[in-house]
């Protein structure tokens, strides 16, 4: 049986002495303030993506719009779930989730889009998913072992963002690209 790096008595004393820190212990190896900033940027990204997908859901029209709109609605719900997970992690780490609507688009990694053309909507959503994939991959690598719980949050988000990108690519392949604007 391996020895603990810190004896159990010391661990217990620290746990009692620093209860106000919640889950953040001396073993936490990341820059907490920077992690909270990155999480709030991800929160803004997920909120902007939720709003973009909702807008696309409500404004999608034309011959191919029904299945595409259904996909937009599903993605909007999943992006909202992502925002909730990120906000929850911010609070767990003792931070404050930033829902300020005045600065959401400035802090978000992805852009908001108000396209009216169905194919343009899909393309803009695909670009946003690819941005999230690249950002979340970098964040997960950056977190490494310093904050494995937050890293796993980003890895879970990343897996679903990759699914979204694949879904959107599939939608683009099913819609004739030479069609006239619906």
Quick tags:
mainly alpha, Ferritin, 6 helices, 68% helix
What does this structure look like?
The protein is mostly helical and 182 residues long. The chain has a single domain (28-174), classed as Up-down Bundle (Ferritin), CATH 1.20.1260. The chain contains six helices and no strands. The protein has helices at 8-17, 32-59, 65-92, 104-107, 118-143, 148-174. α2 runs antiparallel to α3.
Characterize this entry briefly:
InterPro entries: Dps-like, Ferritin-like, Ferritin-like_diiron, Ferritin-like_SF, Ferritin_DPS_dom. The chain is mainly alpha-helical and 182 residues long.
Question: What's the topology here?
Answer:
Elements: H1 8-17, H2 32-59, H3 65-92, H4 104-107, H5 118-143, H6 148-174
Helix pairs in contact: 2-3, 2-5, 3-6, 5-6
Radius of gyration: 20 Å
Judged by helices, strands and strand pairing, the structural class is: mainly alpha
The CATH topology comes to Ferritin
Proportion of residues in β-strands: under 5%
Organism: Streptomyces platensis
EC number: 1.16.3.1
Domain Ferritin-like diiron: 29-179
Binding site for Fe cation: 46, 82, 129, 161, 164
């Amino acid at each position: 049986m391996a020895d603990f790096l810190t004896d159990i008595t010391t661990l217990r004393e620290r746990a009692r002495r620093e209860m106000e820190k919640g889950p953040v212990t001396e073993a936490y190896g990341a820059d907490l303030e920077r992690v909270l900033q990155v999480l709030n940027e991800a929160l803004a990204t997920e909120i902007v993506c939720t709003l973009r997908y909702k807008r696309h859901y409500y404004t999608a029209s034309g011959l191919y719009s029904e299945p595409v709109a259904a996909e937009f609605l599903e993605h909007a719900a999943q992006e909202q779930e992502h925002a909730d997970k990120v906000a929850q992690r911010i609070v767990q780490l003792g931070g404050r989730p930033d829902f300020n609507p005045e600065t959401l688009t400035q802090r978000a990694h992805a852009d908001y889009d108000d396209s009216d053309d169905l194919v343009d909507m899909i393309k803009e959503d695909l670009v946003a998913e690819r941005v999230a994939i690249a950002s979340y991959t970098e964040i997960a690598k950056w977190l490494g072992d310093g904050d494995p719980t937050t890293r796993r949050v980003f890895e879970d988000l990343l897996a679903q963002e990759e699914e979204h990108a694949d879904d959107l690519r599939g939608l683009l392949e099913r819609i004739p690209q030479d069609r006239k604007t619906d």
